[in-house]
Protein backbone atom coordinates (compact mmCIF):
# COMPACT_ATOMS: atom_id res chain seq x y z
CA UNK A 1 0.00 0.00 0.00
CA UNK A 2 1.50 3.32 -1.13
CA UNK A 3 1.96 5.94 1.58
CA UNK A 4 2.09 9.57 0.45
CA UNK A 5 2.45 12.86 2.29
CA UNK A 6 -0.49 15.17 2.87
CA UNK A 7 0.13 18.91 2.52
CA UNK A 8 -1.85 21.97 3.51
CA UNK A 9 -2.44 24.94 1.20
CA UNK A 10 0.73 26.58 2.58
CA UNK A 11 2.72 23.66 1.16
CA UNK A 12 3.66 22.25 4.57
CA UNK A 13 3.44 18.53 5.29
CA UNK A 14 0.67 17.85 7.82
CA UNK A 15 0.53 14.06 7.75
CA UNK A 16 0.45 10.98 5.53
CA UNK A 17 -2.22 8.91 3.86
CA UNK A 18 -2.33 5.27 2.73
CA UNK A 19 -3.58 4.87 -0.82
CA UNK A 20 -5.69 1.86 -1.76
CA UNK A 21 -3.66 -0.55 -3.92
CA UNK A 22 -6.83 -1.52 -5.78
CA UNK A 23 -6.75 1.95 -7.40
CA UNK A 24 -3.28 3.43 -6.90
CA UNK A 25 -1.16 0.27 -6.87
CA UNK A 26 -2.29 -1.83 -9.82
CA UNK A 27 -0.13 -3.39 -12.51
CA UNK A 28 0.23 -0.76 -15.25
CA UNK A 29 -1.34 -1.85 -18.54
CA UNK A 30 0.23 0.40 -21.18
CA UNK A 31 -1.91 -1.03 -23.98
CA UNK A 32 -5.16 -0.06 -22.25
CA UNK A 33 -3.77 3.38 -21.35
CA UNK A 34 -2.87 3.98 -25.00
CA UNK A 35 -6.28 2.72 -26.11
CA UNK A 36 -8.06 5.05 -23.68
CA UNK A 37 -6.14 8.09 -24.94
CA UNK A 38 -6.79 7.24 -28.61
CA UNK A 39 -10.45 6.58 -27.75
CA UNK A 40 -10.90 9.99 -26.12
CA UNK A 41 -9.14 11.89 -28.91
CA UNK A 42 -11.07 9.99 -31.59
CA UNK A 43 -14.40 10.60 -29.85
CA UNK A 44 -13.61 14.33 -29.71
CA UNK A 45 -13.22 14.58 -33.50
CA UNK A 46 -16.13 16.22 -35.31
CA UNK A 47 -15.69 14.16 -38.47
CA UNK A 48 -17.36 16.85 -40.60
CA UNK A 49 -14.53 17.34 -43.13
CA UNK A 50 -15.81 17.20 -46.71
CA UNK A 51 -14.44 17.81 -50.21
CA UNK A 52 -15.95 17.06 -53.63
CA UNK A 53 -14.86 14.29 -55.96
CA UNK A 54 -14.92 14.70 -59.76
CA UNK A 55 -18.47 13.34 -59.80
CA UNK A 56 -19.68 16.11 -57.47
CA UNK A 57 -18.08 19.30 -58.85
CA UNK A 58 -20.09 21.26 -61.39
CA UNK A 59 -19.31 21.55 -65.10
CA UNK A 60 -17.07 19.52 -67.38
CA UNK A 61 -19.83 17.86 -69.34
CA UNK A 62 -18.09 17.88 -72.70
CA UNK A 63 -14.65 16.72 -73.75
CA UNK A 64 -12.35 19.82 -73.81
CA UNK A 65 -10.77 18.87 -77.16
CA UNK A 66 -10.81 15.98 -79.56
CA UNK A 67 -8.93 12.82 -78.68
CA UNK A 68 -6.21 12.95 -81.34
CA UNK A 69 -4.28 15.40 -83.46
CA UNK A 70 -4.04 18.42 -81.11
CA UNK A 71 -0.59 17.77 -79.65
CA UNK A 72 -2.12 17.88 -76.17
CA UNK A 73 -2.54 14.93 -73.87
CA UNK A 74 -5.97 13.39 -74.18
CA UNK A 75 -8.54 14.79 -71.74
CA UNK A 76 -12.05 13.62 -70.96
CA UNK A 77 -13.28 16.37 -68.66
CA UNK A 78 -12.20 19.71 -67.21
CA UNK A 79 -13.43 18.47 -63.81
CA UNK A 80 -10.72 15.79 -63.58
CA UNK A 81 -8.37 16.22 -60.56
CA UNK A 82 -5.46 17.62 -62.61
CA UNK A 83 -7.54 20.60 -63.76
CA UNK A 84 -8.00 23.80 -61.76
CA UNK A 85 -11.47 23.60 -60.26
CA UNK A 86 -11.50 19.84 -60.67
CA UNK A 87 -12.47 17.30 -58.04
CA UNK A 88 -10.27 15.91 -55.27
CA UNK A 89 -8.87 12.42 -55.90
CA UNK A 90 -9.66 10.70 -52.59
CA UNK A 91 -11.89 13.38 -51.09
CA UNK A 92 -12.62 13.17 -47.35
CA UNK A 93 -16.26 12.61 -46.47
CA UNK A 94 -18.10 13.05 -43.15
CA UNK A 95 -17.49 10.05 -40.91
CA UNK A 96 -17.66 8.98 -37.29
CA UNK A 97 -14.21 8.37 -35.81
CA UNK A 98 -15.46 7.21 -32.41
CA UNK A 99 -15.07 3.70 -31.07
CA UNK A 100 -16.10 2.07 -27.83
CA UNK A 101 -14.19 0.71 -24.87
CA UNK A 102 -16.03 -1.32 -22.28
CA UNK A 103 -16.30 -0.15 -18.66
CA UNK A 104 -13.75 -2.61 -17.31
CA UNK A 105 -11.14 -1.46 -19.82
CA UNK A 106 -11.77 2.22 -19.04
CA UNK A 107 -11.47 1.64 -15.30
CA UNK A 108 -8.30 -0.42 -15.68
CA UNK A 109 -6.75 2.28 -17.89
CA UNK A 110 -7.56 5.04 -15.37
CA UNK A 111 -6.18 2.99 -12.47
CA UNK A 112 -2.99 2.37 -14.49
CA UNK A 113 -2.59 6.10 -15.18
CA UNK A 114 -3.13 7.02 -11.51
CA UNK A 115 -0.70 4.31 -10.38
CA UNK A 116 1.92 5.67 -12.78
CA UNK A 117 1.56 9.16 -11.25
CA UNK A 118 1.97 7.75 -7.74
CA UNK A 119 5.07 5.81 -8.77
CA UNK A 120 6.55 8.93 -10.40
CA UNK A 121 5.82 10.88 -7.17
CA UNK A 122 3.64 13.22 -9.21
CA UNK A 123 0.50 12.60 -7.13
CA UNK A 124 0.07 15.29 -4.47
CA UNK A 125 -2.56 15.06 -1.73
CA UNK A 126 -3.81 18.26 -0.06
CA UNK A 127 -5.84 18.16 3.17
CA UNK A 128 -8.42 20.57 1.71
CA UNK A 129 -8.83 23.41 -0.76
CA UNK A 130 -11.54 25.75 0.46
CA UNK A 131 -12.15 29.36 -0.58
CA UNK A 132 -14.60 31.81 0.99
CA UNK A 133 -14.48 33.86 -2.20
CA UNK A 134 -13.59 33.37 -5.85
CA UNK A 135 -10.00 34.55 -6.24
CA UNK A 136 -7.54 33.36 -8.86
CA UNK A 137 -4.58 34.72 -6.89
CA UNK A 138 -5.41 32.42 -3.95
CA UNK A 139 -5.36 29.34 -6.18
CA UNK A 140 -2.12 30.46 -7.85
CA UNK A 141 -0.53 30.83 -4.40
CA UNK A 142 -1.45 27.22 -3.51
CA UNK A 143 0.30 25.96 -6.65
CA UNK A 144 3.32 28.12 -5.85
CA UNK A 145 3.46 26.79 -2.26
CA UNK A 146 3.26 23.20 -3.55
CA UNK A 147 5.93 24.01 -6.20
CA UNK A 148 3.69 22.66 -8.93
CA UNK A 149 2.95 23.82 -12.46
CA UNK A 150 0.80 22.28 -15.19
CA UNK A 151 -1.50 20.41 -12.83
CA UNK A 152 -4.75 18.49 -12.90
CA UNK A 153 -6.59 19.33 -9.68
CA UNK A 154 -9.20 16.81 -8.56
CA UNK A 155 -11.76 18.34 -6.22
CA UNK A 156 -14.73 16.97 -4.34
CA UNK A 157 -18.22 17.89 -5.57
CA UNK A 158 -19.62 21.26 -4.58
CA UNK A 159 -16.28 23.08 -4.35
CA UNK A 160 -17.41 25.74 -6.83
CA UNK A 161 -15.29 28.64 -5.54
CA UNK A 162 -12.08 26.65 -6.07
CA UNK A 163 -13.17 25.49 -9.53
CA UNK A 164 -13.93 29.04 -10.72
CA UNK A 165 -10.76 30.41 -9.09
CA UNK A 166 -8.64 28.02 -11.17
CA UNK A 167 -10.33 28.77 -14.50
CA UNK A 168 -8.01 31.58 -15.60
CA UNK A 169 -4.74 29.87 -14.69
CA UNK A 170 -2.85 28.56 -17.70
CA UNK A 171 -1.88 24.87 -17.62
CA UNK A 172 -4.25 24.10 -14.75
CA UNK A 173 -7.47 22.11 -15.05
CA UNK A 174 -9.92 21.09 -12.35
CA UNK A 175 -11.87 17.86 -12.47
CA UNK A 176 -14.61 16.23 -10.43
CA UNK A 177 -14.40 12.54 -9.48
CA UNK A 178 -16.75 11.53 -12.32
CA UNK A 179 -14.87 13.56 -14.96
CA UNK A 180 -11.32 12.28 -14.42
CA UNK A 181 -9.95 10.68 -17.56
CA UNK A 182 -6.72 9.02 -18.65
CA UNK A 183 -5.83 11.72 -21.20
CA UNK A 184 -5.88 14.52 -18.61
CA UNK A 185 -3.99 12.46 -16.01
CA UNK A 186 -1.19 11.88 -18.53
CA UNK A 187 -1.31 15.36 -20.09
CA UNK A 188 -0.60 17.28 -16.87
CA UNK A 189 2.72 16.96 -15.05
CA UNK A 190 1.16 16.60 -11.61
CA UNK A 191 -2.16 15.40 -10.23
CA UNK A 192 -3.30 17.24 -7.10
CA UNK A 193 -6.21 15.80 -5.12
CA UNK A 194 -7.86 16.72 -1.85
CA UNK A 195 -8.20 14.06 0.85
CA UNK A 196 -11.97 14.05 0.30
CA UNK A 197 -11.45 13.51 -3.43
CA UNK A 198 -9.00 10.63 -2.84
CA UNK A 199 -11.52 8.92 -0.54
CA UNK A 200 -14.24 9.30 -3.16
CA UNK A 201 -11.98 7.97 -5.96
CA UNK A 202 -11.19 4.90 -3.86
CA UNK A 203 -14.89 4.40 -3.10
CA UNK A 204 -15.89 4.64 -6.78
CA UNK A 205 -13.04 2.76 -8.47
CA UNK A 206 -11.82 0.23 -5.90
Automatic annotation (TrEMBL):
- Read off the InterPro entries from this record: Ribosomal_uL4, Ribosomal_uL4-like, Ribosomal_uL4_dom_sf
Q: Where is this region: Disordered?
A: 44-85
Gene Ontology CC? ribosome
Is tRNA processing among the key words of this record? no
- Keywords, sorted A to Z: Ribonucleoprotein, Ribosomal protein, RNA-binding, rRNA-binding
The text of the family note is: Belongs to the universal ribosomal protein uL4 family.
- Please name the PANTHER family in this protein's record: 50S RIBOSOMAL PROTEIN L4, LARGE RIBOSOMAL SUBUNIT PROTEIN UL4M
Query: What biological function has been recorded for the protein in this entry?
Result: Forms part of the polypeptide exit tunnel. One of the primary rRNA binding proteins, this protein initially binds near the 5'-end of the 23S rRNA. It is important during the early stages of 50S assembly. It makes multiple contacts with different domains of the 23S rRNA in the assembled 50S subunit and ribosome.
| The protein's assembly and partners | Part of the 50S ribosomal subunit.
Q: What is the official name of this protein in its record? A: Large ribosomal subunit protein uL4
Name its species. Dorea hominis
